[in-house]
Amino acid sequence: MALAGRVGEEELEAKLFGSQPVRAKAVQQRPQPDWKTIHEQLQQHRHLTLQLVWEEYRQANPEGYRYSWFCERYQHWRRHLDVVLRQEHKAGEKMFVDWAGATIPVYDSTTGHAWPASLFVSVLGASSYTYAEVTRDQQLEAWIQAHIHALEFFGGVPTVAVPDNTKTAVTRACRYDPDLNPTYQEFAVHYGMGVVPARPYKPRDKAKVESGVQVVERWIVAALRNRKFFSLPELNQAIRELLVRLNERPFRKRDGSRASLFHSLEKPVLAPLPAERFDMSQWSRATVNIDYHIVFDGNFYSVPYALVQQIMEVRSTPTTVEIFHKGQRVASHLRHRGRGQTITQGEHRPRSHQAHLEWPPSRMVNWARSIGPHTVQLFERILSEKPHPEMGYRSCLGIIRLAQQYSAQRMEAAAERAILAKACRYQSVKSILKNSLDAVPLSPSEPASPPLTHDNLRGPEVLRPTEANLMLNQPMMEKLLAMRLHGMVEGLKTQAQDQAIHELSFLERLSLLIDQQWNWRENQALARRLKAAKLRGPACVEDIDYRVPRGLDKTVVRALAKDSTWVRNHENIFVIGPCGVGKSFLAGALAQKACRDGYSALNLRAAALLRDLGLARADGSLRHLLARLSRIDVLVIDDWAMAPLSEAERREIWEICEDRYQTRSTILTSQLPVSRWHEQIGDPTIADGILDRLVHNAHRIEMRGESMRKKRNPPDEKKE
Question: What is the CATH number that goes with domain 534-708?
Answer without folding.
Answer: 3.40.50.300
